[in-house]
Amino acid sequence: MDSGTLNCEKQVLNGDSMTLRLPVGFERSKFKALVHYICWRTQDNPARLGATKLNKILWYAETGTFLKTGKPLTGARYVKRQHGPVPACIPAVVNELVEEQKIFVRDVPFFKFEKKEYISLQDPEIDSFFSASDIGNFDRIIDVVCDAHTARSISDRTHNEPWHLAELGEALPLFTALALPAEITEADMQWADEKIAALKA
């Protein structure tokens, strides 16, 4: 198997132990190129991007493609973390980019906390994996997430019902992005009662 399409580590919290899970069809090199591109695209002002916004850009890029085409963008597996869905392999991929001297990551003061900033040291190999249309979509997502939101506000937008119901570390399939809040009406209740009655008959 080509090393570029090998599944990367999936560290999922399971009690006090960490288990390794490998998703089917995960294109690791493609995912890695996208992470590098996001860092490169925001290098003019690294303060625009932090760990939370990086994860959100990846989530919206992945789910946007899935909702449009019915297929995942890279096949990355997302899990529930405190601030929303996170690609489970993102620490490993970022570390690899650092080791290859493609990006630099630094911790900077942010109010009473610290945040990560990502600086690209090389041009990403984005054209090898994505079309011009894909890249245009990424640029729009990056600009909206980085410039129209705080880390808190963009996190809140990904906290939908499946996220609330999931346990920390639990997988969040891409189709959970379809879940939208809706009011249960009297007609809905009547339909449910009729279905239950029919099952009991």
List key phrases describing it.
201 residues, alpha+beta, two-stranded antiparallel sheet, two-stranded antiparallel ribbon, 16% strand, elongated
Structural notes for this entry:
- The protein has 201 residues and is α+β, with helices and mostly antiparallel strands.
- The chain is built from 7 helices and 6 strands, in the order ββααββαββαααα.
- It has helices spanning 28-41, 51-69, 90-99, 132-147, 151-157, 161-165, 186-200; strands spanning 11-14, 17-20, 78-81, 84-87, 103-110, 113-120.
- A two-stranded antiparallel ribbon has the order 1-2.
- β5 and β6 (113-120) form a beta hairpin.
- α2 packs across α4.
- The longest helix is centred in the N-terminal third of the chain and has 19 residues, at 51-69.
- The radius of gyration is 19 Å and the shape is elongated.
- The model is unreliable at 1-23 (pLDDT under 50).
